[in-house]
């Protein structure tokens, strides 16, 4: 009697259920890690929230939509980071569900599950997803754009134009890479007979109107701020360094998708038992247009982003790895053929589970182990709530006023700005970044200036003392990390700038 595992049978009988189960489990895993092991926001999320409270149409952080949504989620959760973490995971869930619907339209529902499972192993869809921002919000918007683009071009569904226009407008309000991504959609449409036929209708014109209306406020801000300037092209002497950077960026993408390559290799005939009769995952034949669509958007975004990033000397891949690799799993499934034999299914399940769980386990291990090695600090182990409460209460006791602004070291100041009172962030080292708070206004409203204390007297760094010559440093305040280990306590030097009239 032939035995087939329960997972394979569920993929065949209830593919959508499998997708929802694994996607929700991954989201729950990262929410658990964030709530238990994160005492402060990851990356630059605290600064993003400090900018978000101002509700500016544009800032140097980029288009406004992710900044506004982060602040809305933070306020909705009662000024708790839980709301932002949930928003980030909702973006991941929306990305995978949209990818499942796109894959189902191309390879059928059963193999669509395999495409989603493979894509979940990409490293970009791991802990960085908690660092909500343009790179995270762009993923579901780009995946939805691909879904509705295929419905328009490949399935001739004219009713998808409205959703397409909304998503394109929101993508322009999310990431500067939107112009590059939308250009790829236009290139594919123009290069195919079905796409050219679609563009001859009136629907694209109405879609452009909707996109223009959504993006107009930010476009006006860009023109008035005169910030829409491309970085300079490299000189001839810089070409070797830029080419090396391109190789590193491309290698990083390949490494990020290494689990897909490993799972594909392990499912080859080399690892099949001699008497094994592997279960088969079927699909209907893939049309040539669908095959071209998948291959184009699996390769063009990645290669184009690497080329542009290296040409202009960018540190990361334009648009983020999560955007340019979102079609990698589907491309592998399309290449595999109409019949995919699941050889050594138990081994594949273990490798897949390890690839999904390993990043979370690595984060937990780093939080618990690195403090004992003394080799570095974990930024998410800073006690953000204790820091913000202390300085808010200290300012109120000394001045009998509510804390309205905070300056000094941006990382520490951003954490204090997370307090329920939401003081303004003032980046005194570069005041142009925070136009809502200038030096004169900071002196009028008063505030707290903070820095990393290097001695027991709390002597301010020379640059801070130069910008605030009249401050009197207080006794530094020491805070414990989530896991202190062998590292020193977090010592924060501070001084109060009293409001005028007190």
Automatic annotation (TrEMBL):
Main location, first listed in the record: membrane
TM segment ranges: 17-38, 82-100, 112-137, 170-193, 205-223, 243-272, 293-312, 318-339, 351-372
Localization (cell): Cell membrane
Pfam families per UniProt: PMT_2
GO cellular component: plasma membrane
Keywords annotated in UniProt: Cell membrane, Glycosyltransferase, Membrane, Transferase, Transmembrane, Transmembrane helix
Ranges for domain Glycosyltransferase RgtA/B/C/D-like: 63-221
Membrane topology type: Multi-pass membrane protein
Keyword Glycosyltransferase: yes
A GO molecular function held by the record: pentosyltransferase activity
Signal peptide per UniProt: none
UniProt keyword Transmembrane, yes or no: yes
Name this polypeptide is given: Glycosyltransferase RgtA/B/C/D-like domain-containing protein
């Amino acid at each position: 009697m032939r035995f087939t595992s329960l997972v394979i049978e569920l993929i065949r009988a209830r593919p959508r259920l499998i997708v929802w189960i694994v996607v929700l489990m991954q989201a729950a895993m990262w929410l658990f890690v964030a709530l238990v092991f994160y005492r402060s926001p990851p990356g630059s999320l605290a600064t993003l929230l400090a900018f978000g409270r101002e509700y500016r149409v544009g800032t140097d952080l980029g288009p406004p939509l992710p900044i506004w949504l982060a602040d809305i989620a933070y306020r909705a959760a009662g000024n708790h980071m839980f709301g932002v973490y949930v928003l980030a995971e909702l973006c991941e869930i929306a990305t995978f569900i949209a990818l499942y619907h796109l894959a189902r339209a191309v390879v059928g529902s059963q193999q669509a599950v395999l495409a989603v499972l493979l894509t979940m192993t990409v490293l970009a869809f791991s802990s960085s997803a908690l660092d909500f921002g343009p790179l995270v919000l762009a993923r579901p918007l780009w995946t939805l754009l691909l879904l509705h683009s295929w419905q328009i071009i490949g399935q001739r569904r004219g009713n998808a134009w409205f959703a397409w226009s909304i998503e394109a407008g929101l993508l322009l309000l999310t990431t500067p890479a939107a112009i590059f991504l939308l250009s790829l959609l236009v290139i594919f449409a123009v290069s195919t007979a079905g796409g050219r036929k679609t563009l001859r209708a009136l629907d694209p014109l109405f879609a452009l109107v909707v996109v223009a209306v959504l993006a107009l406020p930010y476009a006006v801000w860009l023109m008035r701020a005169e910030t829409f300037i491309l970085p300079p092209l490299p000189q001839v002497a810089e070409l070797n360094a830029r080419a090396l950077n391109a190789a590193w960026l491309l290698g990083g993408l390949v490494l990020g998708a290494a689990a897909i390559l490993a799972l594909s290799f392990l499912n080859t005939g080399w690892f099949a038992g001699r008497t094994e009769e592997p279960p088969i995952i079927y699909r209907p034949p893939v049309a040539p247009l669908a095959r071209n669509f998948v291959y184009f958007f699996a390769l063009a975004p990645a290669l184009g982003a690497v080329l542009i990033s290296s040409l202009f000397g960018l540190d990361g891949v334009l648009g983020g790895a999560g955007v340019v690799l979102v079609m990698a799993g589907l491309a592998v499934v399309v290449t595999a053929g109409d019949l995919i034999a699941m050889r050594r299914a138990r081994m594949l399940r273990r490798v897949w589970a390890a690839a999904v769980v390993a990043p979370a386990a690595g984060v937990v291990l780093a939080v618990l182990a690195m403090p004992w090695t003394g080799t570095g600090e974990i930024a998410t182990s800073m006690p953000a709530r204790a820091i913000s409460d202390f300085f808010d209460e200290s300012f109120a006791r000394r001045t009998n006023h509510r804390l309205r602004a905070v300056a000094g070291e941006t990382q520490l100041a951003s954490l204090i700005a997370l307090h329920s009172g939401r003081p303004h962030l003032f980046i005194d080292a570069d005041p142009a970044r925070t136009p809502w708070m200038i030096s004169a206004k900071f002196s009028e409203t008063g505030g707290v200036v903070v820095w990393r204390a290097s001695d027991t007297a709390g002597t301010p760094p020379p640059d801070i003392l130069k910008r605030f010559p009249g401050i009197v440093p207080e006794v530094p305040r020491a805070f414990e990390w989530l896991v202190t280990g062998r590292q020193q306590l977090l010592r924060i030097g501070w001084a109060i700038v009293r409001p005028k009239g007190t």
